[in-house]
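User: For documentation purposes, I need each entry recorded in a consistent format: the amino acid sequence on its own, followed directly by the corresponding structure tokens. There are two entries in this batch. Please keep commentary to a minimum and don't merge the entries.

Assistant: Recorded as requested. Entry 1:
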Amino acid sequence: MTREPITPTMDLFSAISDEMRLKILMLLDQAEFTVNEIKDILDIHQSNASRHLAKLSACGLLKDRRDGIKAYYRLSEDLLMSSRVLSVIRDAYGELQDKDILCCRAEQVLQERTDKTKGQIHKLDQAGGSLKAQISLFSRLMIPFENAVDIGCGEGGDLSLMLANRCKNVTSLDCDPKVISGMQKILKQKGITNITPKVADMNKTGLPNNYADLVLMSQVLHHATDPRIAIKEAVRILRPKGMLALLDLAQHKEESFRTTHGHIWLGFDRNQLEFFVKEFNCRIVSSEIIPSENAVDKKLPVICMIITKD
């Protein structure tokens, strides 16, 4: 058998046998959360939440990332790659009597986060909007598609309009109703009828399984509360052998983008994105880091990735 990163031990069983820690794992299986968010959702004291998180982290089940003074916790890559242990943990969620209530509270927390960043999605001419990167992406998409989905189309819907020339139907999604309203006006002015704008979160598009030949995620993943969940949703709506075109910032240290642009993640390590993709049985056709051609205006390197669904 292939050796998994996490193997059963007495410490591991001790960690996951506690009901409160199992609830924490269930929450973090949905998205990443801070200590304060976890203690509010579970209605426990912060010191208790911190103690449980420390126990789970010591067993390699959790990872955290820093955002200023906050620490966001998520399931570790080692746990996600350990299918036997993960299966046992997920099966145990069904024994939690208040699981539905906790999931609803978690959804409310995520919605509040989304509301705070609405309207801050930047356009193509800003930090990650390198023209070189856009050309590199679209040079790989010069084939016709039946149904395309532009997740996080943004103000003006520039990429959706480009796709409309090559696709029979384009669905443009954005979480901000003002963006979608503006998109509807543009389409009416231009007389374009094959684009359907829709208000939707990238984690829950509302589209059916295996719907799209092409899913485009350009400069939106760094706004995701949990990039893994956002990629999982994009793969869900993609038909087998369909194409997921992903363009986003490479890892950087421009902390100011959190406030000026509403970024949650300061770009991504390419290996991290490739790990997320492979978890969902997808194949990476090409993966490239494209350097900035204009450092003066803080244009940043981006990752251009083309993925197919097996």
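Entry 2:
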Amino acid sequence: MFYEVEFDVRNLNHWIGDRTSHMKLAMILGRHTGVVVEVHATHKNDVVIVDDWSSARDVRDFALEYLPEGLYYDRNRYWDVRDCARCGDRASSCRKCYNYNGQQLAFDLDPENVDCPYHGHIGDKIARGRGLSFCMHEFRQVKGQAIRLLAELRSAYGDVRIVFSGRGFHLVVYDEHAYFLSAGQRKSIAKEISARYDIDEWVTEGESRLMRLPYSLNALVSRKCMELKGERVLKEFDPRHTGQVIPKFARSS
């Protein structure tokens, strides 16, 4: 129902801009929820790469066919994704490829990474089989971190945007020079920032390239992934009550 009725194709098209031939998309069908369309059940746990698309309407069509629990974009930038479709090499070799044109710098703050006086350390949560769960104490802590990290990054970069992932926050750098940071520079940045913030280091290092697609549905929590504009919006943001991120089907439940 979300992708049929509510998926914001117009704004997604604006976000995509001129990147259709330079950006891959990806889907995870049912790895965490276990919910998957029967015809695609054999790919439930796989990352399904989408490199044959040209508009947000194509993205919607893929979503309606596969009904993924998560839609993502690849932070790598390519000269032409059609060349990637013909490539049989492993993803780890992308940076050495003639078709690679940099990677977006990003920081991923998830609430379950926060040490909680009620639920313990992330290791404790994983041991209890609750590694993806979080409480509002953890969410408020990570929101505070996102506000501080955003201010810090904006003192170093010209174009930094913050996105609510449905659970936590993504801080994404659009500065052109940041696309060409070396692997060593990314590791150094990740180490420095992780000393003060509960980021997933492997995202900043570039090891994990996928970032949740804005305007898509995070089916783990029934919340929309949305860019948040303005510090006031971020400070007042509450995923339980902020209508911008609550899909219509969840408002009456």
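Summary note for entry 2:
The chain has a mean pLDDT of 91.
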